[in-house]
Amino acid sequence: MMRQRKILQNVEGYVPGEQPKFPNIVKLNTNENPYPPSPKVVEAVRRLNENAIRKYPDTVSLELRSALAAHYGYPGPEWVVVSNGMDELLAMAMRAFTDPNDKILSCYPTYILYEKLALLHGARPVLIDLDDDFLLTEQFFETAARLCFLPRPNSPSGVAVPQQDVDRFCRVFDGLVVIDEAYVDFSDDSCIDFAKKFDNAIVMRTMSKSFSMAGMRVGFGFAQPDLVAELMKVKDSYNMSAASQAAGLAALDDKDWMEANIAKVRATRARLTDELIRLGFAVPPSRSNFVLAQWNGTPNARNIFESLRERAIVVRYFNAWRLENALRITVGTDSEIDTLLAALREILNK
Ligand SMILES: Cc1ncc(COP(=O)(O)O)c(C=O)c1O
Q1: How confident is the model at residue 287 (pLDDT cuts 50, 70, 90)?
Q2: Helix ranges (DSSP H) in 143-287
Q3: What is the pLDDT of residues 141-162, one digit of tens each?
Q4: Neighbouring C-beta atoms of residue 25, cutoff 10 Å
Q5: Which atom of ligand 1 is nearest to 110's Cα?
Q6: pLDDT in tens, 59-83
Q7: How far does residue 51's CA lie from ligand 1's centre (Å)?
Q8: Can you tell me whether residue 116 is helix, strand or coil?
Q9: pLDDT class for 350, splitting at 50, 70, 90?
Q10: How much distance in Å is there from the Cα of 50 to the middle of ligand 1?
């Protein structure tokens, strides 16, 4: 227990019920939104009464699914599924639609969970390399599989493949296409309607990023009703707590708040990108709330990562092929990004 607490403390600088050990840590490693959620969300959670806590929540989250359908232009709740964060929905799709030994297609590099889920289910992950601009290659379109995880924008590159590529892929692919739009609110356009257009597409979203609600765990997806029915069969009975259902509803009621935060993140992203390029990094065009800063000099990217950590600035370093020379940096507040840039100038002697 003590050991676990210590690990948590070291990673997050925070253990529930205790004073943060590193109150001034600049945490830019997990793509959280640096701005608070809407006050309406906080209020909705505070307002939960004894009964809401004592009793089981609505097992099918009907009110939240209806609100999501209305909000995103779907005919009704039968087109919508909600989950304990999008991670649960990704796992539900594997459980509902794949068998052991099935091929699961995705690209590389991408969100590490896709491969992990495939392996966990005894399936065979097939990861097709992205090109030098982190875009899909012809090989991707030509690969057969039972299910495909297609993130747009992708992580860790931040790049959004053209919408027409997703359209084309849904047409040619024989299996199910999971379009992961975790970061799409920071982008310019989305594939939100694709579940209406294609009977093999599931469009997945989360409130973790754009809505500043990673701790609440609200994921949601849109698909044709027969697919939604299959997903509902494999979910945990009460996969959405009373708090997450209430918070999700309140968040939809204050889209302006979320959009204002997105505008701030996008402005800071542009400034961060420019400054990183000025420092000598190569930065693919990000449509997300993070950037991939590629670096081929001395000190190397891992050393930079470590030097930043010594200064209580935490970014993401992947010890993986094609990413050894890169850091993924979440777009924080302007002041956090100023701190990061000042540290980088110091470390790089610029
Ligand atoms: C590409 C991608 N998809 C899905 C998720 C899952 O988000 P959550 O489970 O917080 O809803 C993440 C989280 O970082 C992500 O990067």
Answers
A1: very high
A2: 163-172, 194-197, 225-234, 242-252, 255-278
A3: 999 999 999 999 999 999 999 9
A4: 17
A5: 1
A6: 999 999 999 999 999 999 999 999 9
A7: 31
A8: helix
A9: confident
A10: 31
pLDDT at 111 over 60: yes
Is 51 in a helix, a strand, or coil? helix
Residue 41 has pLDDT above 80, yes or no: yes
Q: For residue 118, which phi and psi values (nearest 5 degrees)?
A: -60, -45
Cβ of 212 less than 6 Å from ligand 1:
no
What CATH superfamily classification does 2-30+256-348 receive? Aspartate Aminotransferase, domain 1 (3.90.1150.10)
| Tokens matching residue 221 | 């997806």
- CATH ID of 39-253, from 3.40.640.10, 3.40.1010.10, 1.10.540.10, 3.40.366.10: 3.40.640.10
31 Cβ contact list (under 8 Å, min separation 6): 155, 183, 209, 288, 289, 290, 330
- Give the confidence band of 23 by pLDDT, cuts at 50, 70, 90: low
Query: What's the rounded mean pLDDT across residues 267-296?
Result: 98
Contact predicate 221/202, CB 8 Å: yes
Nearest Cα neighbor of 88 from 63, 117, 124, 123 is 117
| Ligand 1 atom with the shortest distance to the CA of 83 | 11
Give the phi and the psi of residue 177 in degrees, each rounded to 5.
Answer: -110, 115
